[in-house]
Design a protein that fits this description.
Its cofactor is FAD. Helices cover about 20% and strands about 30% of the residues. The protein is α/β, with parallel strands linked by helices. It has three domains: about 190 residues, FAD/NAD(P)-binding domain (3-Layer(bba) Sandwich); about 120 residues, FAD/NAD(P)-binding domain (3-Layer(bba) Sandwich), CATH 3.50.50.60; about 80 residues, Enolase-like, domain 1 (2-Layer Sandwich). It has a five-stranded parallel sheet, with helices on one face. The two termini are about 40 Å apart.
């Protein structure tokens, strides 16, 4: 980070422009007002819809139980200018201008909050019946598919694949989930932790096929690389997401190996007066000693408060959260807090074959992460223990009858 960047003088900013109108963008605009910013705030979103929350898309909106999930924010009362249906095209930091479909937008401070975009299955661009699930329009296109109870093939047994499979089974569809790896959530959890989740698919009536790669998609069918032909009235692809940052090419903004904006611990970018927050950015974690790229709702909720505080310049706010997310799948409430990559010990609370259990990761005697299935109290207490860096007693911790807060050393 350059000296010029370190001295970003933003307290005198009169025009803040936020690129991206998802959770991170909306919360940045709201946090600026809540923290006393009186200048111009402009929120630019590529979609024409009123800004909305994404988690309900794979649940209530998809099943027709809700028409949408617009944020309960009175943008007009807060003096936040909305420019919707306006895609960002480029950035010219030397001119302090953001290029958009509607022309250049000048800024004193710019916040990048363009989120992530789903990875497409190669060879399926424009193929009828192949769907993604990221936007409100995606969910609206899938609603009648579920209503007609098609045979559905879900590609990818990650978080979004499991959530969609759950909704499709609830709608009465026949569901087959194909996963290239040997287990669900292979990119997110160790094998011994993900293994118990394999049975959840069969219990719900869904078919899970692992070690399965898609060769091609034909009208009404998915062909796997072993020659298997799966009937498919619709195909839903959930094989991950990448930061939506291609538009920053040539801007001078430093990007990482995954295309993410490389923010510092105050969420500043490599370019003066430009911040980045949410799914499009990674940040260095002092707590975990590595750079984190977190594609989850809570990160998009928490980061904007740090951005707003640093824009106002009244304090030097460092961003170093305990990452948190949740997932509802196959009748289970799954929650995760922390970051387990550097753990040296794994402990179980409860039997993974049962309806409720928790996995705890420790580094030395400190809790660094936990996954709670049907045990929300473990999650709440464990998250606070991670934040505090409290030494734990392993013998007490493995007893599921004892509260986690009572398992300290």
């Amino acid at each position: 980070m350059s000296e010029q960047t370190q001295q970003q003088g933003t307290s005198a900013a009169r025009r803040v422009v936020v690129a991206g109108a998802g959770m991170a963008g909306v919360q940045t605009a709201v946090a600026l007002r809540e923290q006393g910013f009186t200048g111009t705030v402009t929120l630019i979103g590529a979609e024409p819809h009123q800004p909305y929350d994404r988690p309900p898309l794979s649940k209530a909106v998809l099943l027709g139980k809700a028409e949408g999930s617009a944020f309960d924010v009175d943008f007009e009362a807060l003096g936040i200018e909305l420019r919707l249906g306006c895609e960002v095209l480029g950035l010219r930091p030397a001119d302090h201008e953001l290029d958009t479909e509607s022309g250049p937008v000048p800024y004193d401070v710019l916040v990048l909050a363009t989120g992530a975009e789903p990875i497409r299955l190669p060879g399926t661009e424009g193929v009828p019946g192949v769907h993604l699930l990221r936007t409100l329009d995606d969910a609206e296109r899938l609603r009648p598919v579920l209503a007609r109870q098609h045979d559905i093939v879900v590609v990818g047994a990650g978080w979004i694949g499991a959530e969609f499979a759950t909704a499709a089974r609830e709608a009465g569809c026949a569901v087959t989930v194909v996963e290239a790896a040997d287990r669900p959530l292979a990119g997110a959890l160790p094998a011994e932790v993900a293994a118990p989740m394999t049975a959840w698919y069969a219990d719900s009536g869904a078919v899970l096929r692992t070690h399965a790669r898609v060769e091609r998609v034909e009208p009404g069918a998915v062909i796997l690389d072993d020659g298997s032909r799966l009937p498919a009235g619709a195909v839903v692809v959930g094989i991950g997401a990448r930061p939506a940052t291609a538009w920053l090419a040539g801007s001078g903004i430093g990007l990482g190996a995954h295309g993410e904006v490389l923010a510092d611990d105050r969420l500043r970018t490599s370019v003066p007066d430009v911040y980045a927050v949410g799914d499009c950015a990674s940040f260095p974690s002092g707590r975990y000693g590595e750079r984190l790229l977190v594609h989850h709702w809570d990160n998009a909720l928490q980061g904007p408060r740090t951005v707003a505080a640093n824009i106002l310049g009244e304090t030097s706010a460092v961003y170093d959260p305990v990452p948190y997310f949740w997932s509802e799948q196959f009748g289970r409430f799954v929650q995760y807090a922390g970051h387990h990559a550097a753990a040296d010990t794994v402990l179980w609370r409860g039997e993974p074959s049962g309806p409720a259990w928790t996995v705890c990761w420790l580094r030395g005697d400190r809790l660094v992460a936990l996954l709670a299935v049907g045990r929300p109290r473990d999650l709440a207490q464990g998250r606070r223990l991670i934040e505090a860096g409290t030494p734990m007693n392993a013998e007490l911790l493995v007893d599921p009858a004892k509260p986690m807060k009572a398992a300290t050393a």
